[in-house]
From TrEMBL:
Residues 28-212 form the BD-FAE-like domain. It comes from Companilactobacillus keshanensis. InterPro entries: AB_hydrolase_fold, BD-FAE-like_dom, GDXG_lipolytic_enzyme. Pfam families: BD-FAE (PF20434). This is Alpha/beta hydrolase. GO terms for molecular function: hydrolase activity. Keywords: Hydrolase.
Amino acid sequence: MAKQQLEFKNSKFEIETYWLDPLGDYENEPKKPLAIICPGGAYKFIAGREAQPIALKFASEGIHAIVFDYPLISDERPVYPLVLQELATLLNWVKDQADMHNIDLDKVLLVGFSAGSHIVANFNTLMTNEKTRAKIFDEEIMVQPTANIIGYPVIDLTLGWPEEDWAMKISPDIFYWQAQEHLTQDSKPTFIWQTVTDQTVPVMNSFVYSQKMELLKIPYELHLFASGGHGSSLATYVTQEPGNEDNVNFANANWWELCINWLKVRNILPKN
């Protein structure tokens, strides 16, 4: 893992890179997919359980990973639209790294958890459409994600999380509140998972996003698990808070294998 500082105009932000080294056994090294991870944390902090453990899990599948240390709520400015501008800057930076790290630019994934999913969902709606992108980011985005993976996602800030005053700090412009409302035919396929007993982010968030994708005929896969709380990450002992039994759930942990299968169906990973 290495840290790298990037900049959008006068705003500096940090990423953590998990590059896979060349094997050195072949004359032509194969190109590898890349996952850009947006952990959760209620826009208050970057959740560690959804950062390095997820990056290493992708690495074990032959996928480069980057953890995006996105802007949080502060007294100086709201999160939006800066978070989308920084993510676009990151994607353009990725293009410059492609040859050095054998990145397959046709297989770039955005991965989000909880509040991080709100970033991914908004990027998938606003930044894949040229009309809305041009209003937010005045450069061309050289690398567009191929697909998205979102876990226990925040999609709509009016569906029970957060409180309205907190939503106003995330963005006083309600244009950024309801990601599902801006989905278009340009939006990318998405894998979604959540538990129906999530007491923090209502499961309706997953419903409204997948329903809109269904109406637009955008490919998606939705998995809802019968039990478990919010923020379980891998749902195994690897990401368990000591003493918190709710972080471990053998059924929910299957989301990872289901997700890998979906990536194979999408031809992002080989089927054999």
